[in-house]
Write a structure and sequence with these properties.
about 140 residues; about 0% strand
């Protein structure tokens, strides 16, 4: 997870938008792989709707309904990835691609914080990712 934290701290513009989008998508997969391996489950190599990230989320949610709290976050990562690729392929210097990369980084950070928080606090996600146990723990 330290490598993902480093990626999140690196400037979004450090790489071309399409490359950074791919990095963020793979980082999202790595976050969910950590979740699965922490629960002694072998991460799947299959895809759902063409994306391994969505298959990993589906696998991670089995037996833990509170994990569904990050379902839309995973879908949003896929959405931004697709938009960035479409925009970057049409016009590589397009400002929209750069702003989407920044948004994708925010979404990845949300997934990272949710999963790392859930690894610390099992009930996290029953209401939202800013659940009381983590807020009060740091106080």
């Amino acid at each position: 997870m330290a490598e993902i934290a480093e990626l999140l701290e690196a400037p979004a513009a450090a790489a071309p938008p399409a490359e950074r989008a791919r990095d963020y998508l793979f980082a999202g997969e790595a976050v969910l792989e950590h979740w699965l391996t922490a629960h002694e489950r072998e991460p799947t190599q299959s895809a759902v709707e063409g994306f391994r990230l969505l298959a990993l989320h589906r696998q991670g949610a089995k037996g833990d309904p509170s994990f569904n709290a990050c379902r839309e976050t995973c879908r949003e990562l896929v959405y931004h990835h697709n938009v960035i690729l479409d925009v970057a392929l049409a016009a590589p210097d397009n400002a929209e691609a750069a702003s989407r990369v920044v948004m994708m980084r925010f979404v990845l950070n949300h997934l990272y914080l949710f999963v790392s928080g859930k690894l610390e606090e099992a009930g996290l996600g029953e209401f939202c990712c800013s659940a009381r146990p983590l807020r009060t723990q740091s106080a």
